[in-house]
């Protein structure tokens, strides 16, 4: 229970007040409209990324970061909010997507940034000439209801594009190389996974379709796998670093938002 001498950050005031109203003062207890009001607040919290994206866009557009000592929106996000710039931009795009749906009359929206981004990118794959976001979202909601399946980012992409997602795999690389990759990805405004995927695709020849290995080529559980020698690991690391250097030059991604100072 919070006491009067406890100090909370100013942004936590709403949480403290909610706790007091619900469990100490019992403001809502016995109120007929309590359920409806509190449910409305929970649904609003479910779509909180929309408000966050709007505020982020306002800070970027009006340069509200300058009066508080930051030279760029990127610096503000990373130093003040502790958020990578690519995440802030994705949140803005997700908010724009959800706001578009809301103004079109939808009462059910993507639950989070990941789902909104999946809808945005999938709709662009359907058509680059016109915005198909609304029709694609209608299709997703109808299909989800008829199939009785929950909405996820992967489900949205599969429903809109009609493509089955390829299974993912994990790979272990030295932490030092991962940290270098993460730094390059951050500088390019991408996630580490996005950049790693691009590096692998470039190394394999872009979109070239490789024939799958025969099923009987999979090693059995009893097959002994020899660890790579230090020389081989060093060669792999050198190749990866070379690929990253090439990729940072040839695969820059630009955003719709205006460039930072």
Q: Could you outline the blueprint of secondary structure elements for this entry?
A:
Blueprint: H1 13-24, H2 34-46, H3 48-62, H4 73-80, H5 85-103, H6 113-126, H7 133-147, H8 153-161, H9 175-188, H10 192-204, H11 230-250
What is the count of helical runs?
11
Largest sheet: none
Note the beta-strand portion: under 5%
Task: Compute the average pLDDT.
Answer: 79
Q: What is the string of SSEs from the N terminus onward?
A: HHHHHHHHHHH
Structural class: mainly alpha
Any idea what the radius of gyration is? 24 Å
For the terminal residues, how far apart are their CA atoms?
46 Å
Ranges where pLDDT stays below 50 over 5 or more residues in a row are 206-225, 246-261
Beta-strand segment tally: 0
Shape: globular
Provide a quick synopsis of the model.
The protein has 261 residues and is an all-alpha fold.
Describe the structure.
The two termini are 46 Å apart. The protein is mainly alpha-helical. The chain contains eleven helices and no strands.
């Amino acid at each position: 229970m919070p006491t009067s001498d406890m100090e909370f950050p100013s942004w936590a005031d709403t949480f403290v007040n909610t706790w007091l109203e619900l469990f100490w003062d019992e403001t809502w207890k016995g109120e007929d409209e309590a359920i409806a009001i509190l449910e409305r607040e929970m649904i609003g919290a479910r779509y909180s990324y929309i408000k966050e994206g709007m505020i982020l866009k306002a800070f970027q557009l009006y340069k509200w970061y300058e009066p508080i000592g930051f030279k760029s929106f990127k610096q503000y996000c990373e130093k003040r909010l502790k958020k990578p710039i690519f995440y802030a931009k994705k949140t803005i795009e997700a908010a724009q997507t959800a706001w578009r749906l809301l103004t079109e009359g939808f009462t059910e929206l993507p639950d989070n940034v990941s789902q909104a981004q999946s809808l945005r990118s999938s709709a662009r794959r359907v058509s680059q000439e016109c915005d198909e976001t609304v029709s694609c979202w209608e299709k997703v909601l109808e299909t989800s209801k008829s199939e009785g399946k929950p909405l996820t980012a992967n489900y949205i992409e599969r429903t809109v594009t009609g493509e089955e997602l390829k299974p993912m795999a994990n790979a272990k690389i030295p932490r030092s190389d991962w940290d270098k990759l993460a730094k390059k990805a951050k500088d390019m405004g991408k996630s580490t996974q996005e950049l790693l995927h691009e590096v692998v695709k470039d190394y394999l020849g872009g979109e070239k379709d490789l024939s799958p290995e025969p099923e009987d080529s999979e090693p059995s559980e009893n097959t002994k796998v020899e660890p790579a020698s230090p020389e081989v690991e060093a060669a792999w690391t050198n190749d990866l670093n070379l690929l990253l250097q090439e990729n940072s030059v040839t695969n820059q991604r630009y955003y719709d938002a205006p460039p930072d100072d």
